[in-house]
Design brief:
The protein is α/β, with parallel strands linked by helices and about 475 residues long. It contains 16 helices and 19 strands. Helix 13 links the parallel strand 12 and strand 13. One of its GO terms (molecular function) is glycosyltransferase activity.
């Protein structure tokens, strides 16, 4: 059974169907843009548009699609612009006559800047620019929001690693995606999971690595290790808990190898003190690899601190050149229960106060990574900013007195960097000799500009460095005057 709707005409809100009858006579073009208006974060990591273009816009609309849409809309109670859609099939080969411009995928920009701009290329299809809003906005807000959540977690973890670790080379594997089972659909897991992989390389979401492969040419964007779940431990019975752990070492441990074992099925403290730290301690040390102990219940901050302290008592520790304690290479901890950006901060701060290095811990993040986001997390919106009516371009905007935060931009837009490297949105008319970061990525059915996954990751990394140096400019950038 296929649930996903592949008929692009039906990939819209119902009220869009009647909008073609609502525009001024003589309207031949509309230009609209997508931005994050604010919300929880000061910056956005733009990602995901290429997936949507390849999956949905690179395939033509057919007469069968139109027939289906006509039947649906007539039964649904809304008008259907059959003439307009037949024109697209007959004149444009079924490909949408629109041009989409976007900033580079992976780029980190302050909120309240345009990330995408859409304009129709055929004067008979002015209605189409706004019609694609539902599908296009969803294709941008979700992966961009997940990538932004993940990116912010990376900045937090990196900050604590710089304070408490001798090196930060392991940061790519400090936040592991546990979110597949909590996502609403397999497609959501794929899109959101790929967004996380812009910033990290650890994932258990296979759909994510397939999305990165199919849409961005990444041979292998993410990695995992053998790991136990509660059923593989409890199947041995409580009296054989030590045997279950020993089996994990026998099956997967070895020089240079990692194996993760959930250890709270019965009594986490007994597992640490008496099984891992006593009965199996010699085997753990002798493997030449790393055992990753996973607590999976209790209050996260207290559990992590106590787990590390008990492991240090049994396995010892060293003090690095920054004065923080580090477990031996044979043993580490991963906390995957109750993890969010807020709990990551709380755990790492508590560890720092106890002189425990961030080297000791990795995190697994599930629902808070892929599911606990919405369009309102970053206040995403797509708005029309210009219309060509009877041959003359006019500004189109909203400016509600009841919520000035929803004031929209005017005119055809461009995104530039000034001489201090600060990103801002301006009118295209004011571009001059500056480079417009909004570049055409799709036009009339063709993917014009393509990014591979390495480029996306590099853009996020370079942008992160630039963002740190221009933080003080945020107040100005958050209120661009485009009037």
């Amino acid at each position: 059974m296929t649930i996903a709707n592949r008929n692009l005409i039906l990939n819209a809100d119902s009220y869009k169907a009647s909008h073609y009858l609502q525009y001024p006579q003589g309207t031949t073009q509309f230009s609209s843009y997508i931005e994050a208006r604010g919300g929880q974060f000061k910056h956005a990591v733009f990602f995901g548009l290429q997936m949507f273009i390849k999956e949905y816009l690179s395939k033509p609309i057919t007469n069968d699609d139109i027939d289906e849409a006509r039947a649906v809309f007539e039964a649904h109670g809304v008008p259907f612009h059959e003439t307009g859609w037949r024109y697209i099939v007959d004149t444009c080969g079924g490909y949408l006559p629109i041009e989409i411009q976007a900033i580079p995928e992976g780029m980190v920009v302050p909120v309240q800047n345009a990330m995408v701009q859409v304009i129709n290329t055929d004067p008979q299809c002015a209605w189409l620019t706004s019609y694609v809003e539902t599908a296009l906005l969803r294709a941008v807000w979700y992966p961009t929001t997940v990538a932004t959540v993940s990116w912010n977690c990376r900045q937090i973890i990196q900050g604590y690693m710089m304070e408490t670790c001798e090196a930060i080379e392991g940061i790519d594997f400090k936040l592991h995606d546990f979110g597949a089972r909590g996502a609403t659909t397999e497609e959501a897991a794929a899109i959101g999971g790929a967004a996380h992989l812009v910033n990290f390389q650890g994932t258990d979401t296979i759909s994510a690595i397939m999305a990165a492969r199919r849409y961005y040419g990444a041979e292998m964007a993410g990695f995992s290790i053998p790991a136990a779940e509660h059923s593989t431990i409890t199947a041995w019975g409580r009296d054989n808990e030590a045997a279950a752990y020993a089996n994990m070492l026998g099956q997967f441990a070895g020089p240079g190898k990692l194996v993760a074992v959930v250890s709270d099925s019965y009594d986490l403290w007994n597992a640490i003190d008496n099984i891992w730290g006593d009965a199996l301690r010699g085997r753990v040390v002798a493997t030449g690899g790393t055992l990753v102990v996973r607590p999976d219940s209790g209050e996260p901050v207290a559990i992590v601190i106590e787990t590390i302290e008990r492991l240090m008592k049994k396995f010892g520790c060293t003090v690095n050149n920054k004065g923080y304690r580090v477990l031996p290479d044979c043993i580490r901890v991963i906390q995957g229960d109750g993890i969010s950006q807020q709990t990551i901060v709380a755990i790492l701060e508590a560890m720092k106060q106890r002189k425990q290095s961030a080297d000791n811990i990795a995190f697994g993040m599930g629902g808070a990574l892929l599911q606990k986001v919405s369009r309102d997390t970053m206040q995403f919106a797509m708005k029309t900013s210009a219309a060509k009516v009877k041959g003359i371009w006019r500004d189109v905007y909203k400016d509600p007195v009841t919520d000035r935060g929803k004031r929209s931009k005017k005119g055809i837009l461009a995104v530039v960097k000034n001489n201090r490297g600060e990103v801002r949105t301006i009118r295209e008319l004011d571009l001059g000799q500056r480079v417009n970061l909004l570049q055409t990525v799709f036009k009339n059915g063709q993917l014009v500009r393509e990014f591979n996954f390495d480029q996306v990751r590099a853009n996020a990394l370079v942008s992160a460095i630039a963002t740190e140096s221009t933080e003080e400019a945020d107040a100005e950038l958050h209120s661009p005057d485009l009037g």
